[in-house]
Specification:
Keywords: Membrane, Signal, Transmembrane, Transmembrane helix. By secondary structure, the chain is an alpha/beta fold. It contains 9 helices and 4 strands, in the order αβαβααββααααα. It has a 4-stranded mixed sheet with strand order 1-2-3-4, with helices on both faces.
Length: 241
């Protein structure tokens, strides 16, 4: 009987070590998940001036209808005025990168000379932090000042997001405003902020979602490491009685 209980006890200790090892592996995988999924300027596809690609929705926050509407607006703008505007969405920036530094690096990668930069506008957003960056060429500045460009990035895009992650509205409104300004029409201005607008962000962070999922797995494994050996012990005990 003592030998039987010794085997049960040894089996329990083995299973506990096994499940604790699995839990540590899961935690390690979680810690490396963020850098692996981060995006830098050189992770984006190549693009050159004149190319008819107006949206790169890597974060997949835009509907097909909105993409079609924006592509039509920006395509007509390029055809009629020569001014090219591109929107980029990403999900999680590289470590120590900001939305503006990412935008600057991508702008200079795609358009490496002052000549190719002249008629270009690039607007980017990181959907984890909902922060934006915008960069314009020198000829664009004669129509769309830096003040208006910053207003597009920080107001036209971000106000709908503060109202509830309305990415489609945010980028459709941004494309309409940029189209008006770069077509020589009066600036429609930033959206009106209503009194009941919640300024404090209520966005669910991806890190919170990911961490919560891993925590559930870890807790489940720890419970299993205790319950399974006990169940095994009682099963053997019932078989022997």
């Amino acid at each position: 009987m003592q030998q039987f209980l010794y085997h049960i006890y040894s089996g329990r200790k083995y299973l506990q070590r096994l499940f604790l090892s699995l839990a540590l592996v899961l935690l390690a995988m979680q810690s490396f998940a963020t850098p692996a999924n981060a995006t830098g300027a050189y992770d984006m596809p190549s693009l050159v001036a004149g190319e008819k690609t107006w949206i790169i929705d890597q974060a997949e926050v835009l509907s097909r209808i909105s993409e079609g509407q924006i592509n039509n607006t920006l395509g007509n703008l390029a055809k009629e005025t020569g001014n090219e505007v591109r929107f980029v969405t990403i999900h999680r920036l590289d470590y120590d990168e900001t939305a503006q530094s990412f935008t600057d690096k991508l702008f200079e990668r795609w358009f490496p000379t002052l000549e190719t930069q002249a008629n270009q506008t690039l607007l980017a957003i990181d959907t984890v932090t909902n922060t934006t960056g915008i960069r314009t060429g020198e000829k664009v500045k004669s129509l769309m000042s830096d003040e208006i460009a910053q207003s597009v990035a920080s107001e036209t895009v971000l106000v709908p997001l503060r109202e509830g992650d309305k990415y489609n509205q945010a980028f459709v409104d941004a494309s309409d405003r940029i189209w008006a300004v770069l077509s020589g029409k009066p600036d429609p201005g930033a959206p009106v902020v209503t009194d009941n607008l919640k300024v404090e962000s209520t966005f669910t962070k991806a890190e919170e979602t990911d961490t919560g999922g891993s925590t559930i797995w870890v807790i489940g494994l720890l419970i299993a490491a205790t319950v399974i050996p006990m169940a095994t012990y009682y099963w053997y005990q019932s078989m022997g009685s």
